Amino acid sequence: MSQENVEIVRRSAGAWQRDDFEVWLSLIDPDVAWHIGIDRPFGSNVLHGHEGMHELWSFWRTEFDGLWIAPDEIRDLGGERVLHLAHAGFRGRASGLAMESELAQVMTLRDGKIVRSEDYLSHEEALKAVRLAE
């Protein structure tokens, strides 16, 4: 099951990059809890369910231009968890400022769907969270 989970995370990242909402959402459990790594105007840093995923998708697609995510590594953590290390970039639609950053996600999968994602703004922070770095 571990390699299957890695492949699901790879497909999810690809769908996000291709702007394919339907495929991306099909890989996410309807009861997902998505913990995003930034303060945001949603009132909470946890989004729930497919409604929350619509909100997340819409936010990134309406507030920013040129959003891209390039996976660096997708690693099986054993059990139901997968570590996704990437780099991301975007340009603020209103400000025009460009930003590039590390992005990391620790995802939990069950029955072929992402049921939880914990997002981090650095690889080091995510590696510490899964006890792979000091």
Walk me through this protein's architecture:
A 6-stranded mixed sheet has the order 2-1-6-5-4-3, with helices on both faces. It is α+β, with helices and mostly antiparallel strands. The chain is globular. The two termini are 28 Å apart. The longest helix has 16 residues. β4 and β5 form a beta hairpin. The model has no long low-confidence stretch (mean pLDDT 91). The protein contains 4 helices and 6 strands. The chain has a single domain, classed as Roll (Nuclear Transport Factor 2, Chain: A), CATH 3.10.450.
Detail the topology: elements first, then pairings.
Blueprint: H1 2-17, H2 21-26, E1 28-35, E2 46-48, H3 49-63, E3 64-76, E4 81-92, E5 98-110, E6 113-120, H4 123-129
Compact summary:
This protein has four helices and six strands, in the order H-H-E-E-H-E-E-E-E-H.
Number of helices: 4
Helix content range:
25-40%
CATH architecture: Roll
Total discrete domains = 1
Strand content: 35-45%
SSE ordering: HHEEHEEEEH
CATH fold-level topology: Nuclear Transport Factor 2, Chain: A
Record the strand order, biggest sheet: 2-1-6-5-4-3
Number of strands: 6
What structural class do the secondary elements suggest? alpha+beta
Report the uncertain regions: none
How far is it from the N-terminal to the C-terminal residue, by CA? 28 Å
Global mean pLDDT:
91
User: What is the CATH top level name?
Assistant: Alpha Beta
